[in-house]
Amino acid sequence: MSWLGSLFKKKEKVEIKTIDLDISELAEWYKTVSKNEITTIKQKIKSHLEEIEVKKKNTKEKLDNLEKEELKNKNIPVREIQIMQGNKDAYIKITNQFIESLNTNIELSYEPCKDFCDNFKLGLKNLRESTKRSYSVLMHFFENEASKVTKEINTLINVISEIEDQIDGNLKPILEVEDKISQLNKEIRTQFKQGDELEGDKTNLNKAKKSLEKIDKELEQLLKSEEFKNVERLKNKKDNILNELKQNDYAIINIFSPLETPLKKLERVSIDGNALIEKYATNPTAALEEDSELKIMQILTKLSNAINTEQIDVRDKKKEKALEAIEKVDKSQLQSYKTRREQLKQSQLAYERTLKNSRIGKDIDECEYRKEHLRDKIKRLEDKTATTEKKLEAKDIENIKNSITEDAEHLFNTKIKIKDDEADN
């Protein structure tokens, strides 16, 4: 019954150790516990690489034997012998090149070993494709020796599989945990940095909002001040002046608008006074302002004569309208418009000087400028803090911790509890 008892005997449980680690201790701890395992894996890989060197030697010996092997049947046509020899030489040459390409002098780390295995498999694929025909011929003439070469190559394949098991099944999981620990530390450093930035940005945001409230109060006081009311009254007076100036200019323009084209034609045929004529045609308000002697009256007389004597071409209704407009021009009325325009311009300049020298206006402009600057700053800080908060929420630190814990338990039979360094502070 002893065999029956052994059948139902419970499997021996593997002891799982438990350890608490601060995040700052994690990398060094893992480096220590994985060191022996990595050393063992590398020793196994090294042993496999040495085995490959032996199998390379064995394969070359088998190729030498194949090369020396002679035909058992001497009664084969010369042509067939030539075909056989050509394929034999090609097969031995290509296979030797493949064996020589297996350089086992490599670093015993993941990437070089992975590259070695990948290159072997690629080389093996090329070997099979390039020797398919020649191998088929050799199997017809030298089946025994050719099979021995193939058998040795198959043993190489088995050793390569053993190396892949070590690097992908044993070494890679250990290195992946190292990467996870590096990622964890990087994420935590980034989190601390972003947390500090977020705290600073929130402080600056509160300061900016308080400054904006303060400026709003300052602006409110300025707008309630007597000085501001006086400035507003001056602005209203200035606006009235500008409206009257606009109406005055409009009246001047109405006088000369029917004469625009005739004046331009007169300017082209006149000997003197051309600049003033051209200005009345294009900008009558400015022309009247600088025409201190009202020479326009002489110009209009000249224009009337030119139209009547057909010195300039003004036809039909346009001719009648032009002559009618000239007839309506009154010198005293023009003088009145001119004088009023000068008075209004002087009043406008006086109000503008007073407003420009007013301190209240500058203070209000400064407040508005500061408000705009602070609004922009608040908007930028609000956007930045919102973005940083989303980044912090998206941190996958706990998942990385859990993954490291699971991997450590699986690889080293050790259950670790990862604590934040700040937790003890």
Helical percentage: over 70%
For the sheet with most strands, the description reads: 2 strands, parallel
Radius of gyration, in Å, reads 51 Å
- Give the integer mean of the pLDDT values: 89
Q: What is the helix/strand order?
A: HEHHHHHHHHHHHHHE
The protein's oligomeric status is: single chain
Please describe what this structure looks like.
The chain is an all-alpha fold and 425 residues long. Helices cover 82% and strands 3% of the residues. It is built from 14 helices and two strands, in the order αβαααααααααααααβ. It has helices at residues 2-7, 23-68, 78-100, 110-141, 143-224, 226-256, 260-269, 274-282, 284-290, 296-308, 316-328, 331-356, 359-393, 397-412; strands at residues 17-22, 414-419. The chain has a two-stranded parallel ribbon. Helix 3 (78-100) runs antiparallel to helix 4 and helix 7 (260-269) packs antiparallel against helix 8 (274-282). The protein is elongated.
Q: What's the helix and strand layout?
A:
Blueprint: H1 2-7, E1 17-22, H2 23-68, H3 78-100, H4 110-141, H5 143-224, H6 226-256, H7 260-269, H8 274-282, H9 284-290, H10 296-308, H11 316-328, H12 331-356, H13 359-393, H14 397-412, E2 414-419
Parallel strand pairs: 1-2
Helix pairs in contact: 2-3, 2-5, 3-4, 4-5, 5-13, 5-14, 6-12, 7-8, 8-9, 10-11
